Protein: LysR family transcriptional regulator
Organism: Rhizobium beringeri
Amino acid sequence: MKYDLNLLPVFLALMEERNVTRAAEQLGMTQPAVSNALNRLRETLRDPLFIRERYGMKPTEMAQALAPVIRGALASLDDVILGQQAFDPARATRQFTIAPNSYVEFVLMPVIVARLRECAPGIRLRLTPFGNDLAETGAISGATEMVLGRIVEPPDNMVVQHLMDDGLACVVRRDHPEIAESISEEQYQRMRHVNVLPPGRMRVGLFQMLQQAGLRRDVSVSVTHFLAVPEMVAVTDYCATLPRLICHRLARDPRLKVLPAPVDLGSFPVELAWHVRYRNDPAHRWLRSLIAELAKEISDAAVAEAMAGN
């Protein structure tokens, strides 16, 4: 039997999205083209593959059985074909889909974009959100090339690389009437707080750190992104507890001051993950190396500055 290999990525996108429109967006195709490809797959395999339901499409038993086989086959093809290709970042033209969590998007992505502009101007990035579910990012199928953040319980087809660690510090307004150059435990628990609710494990981790340290917070307002914090803190007597590297950025705001947390709240890892199908992709290897290098530079600079301040 002859198979059209062009139909296989369509099948995987439909398995992931369970929706023709979203699969078309992921693949950069039109909805009619995806529907036509699905019809051709059904004719070739003599199975409906996906059954339309009220809230999407449910894969048949055959589709569920085929999915891991097709993923593995495409990964093997990528290993052979991409492994033979040379990569010149200065001349390359390619788009990478990357899923950073909100912390990485704030701290690391601007540095990555700036470096790419210098040494690989033809490389373009498409960012998609990463909360706590790898499947939602498209990384498990390989549709998303990289995930950046806290990676918990990755599946066997994902490779995880540790990039750096970060800790926590506090931000208050510079002319705060009660806080000078440090915050005591008693002050911290008496103050009202701005709480950031990023998705996923970072949120859980902060609450666990505070609980283990025996600290309570009187949360006055919760926001959904780090960018909302400086405006909240600058016009109130509230305090925000944030990752140190984000505090390092906010310290440039003359309205704010950054102080150590009243107790050591530990650290959290920042990790990079990718599908095994990209392990021998020269462009992917190059970008992974660049990201790891920049993460180390940022981390080392922050440590050096902290030591100089002491």
Observations:
- Residues 7 and 41 are 7 Å apart (CA to CA).
- The longest strand covers residues 158-166.
- The chain has twelve helices and twelve strands.
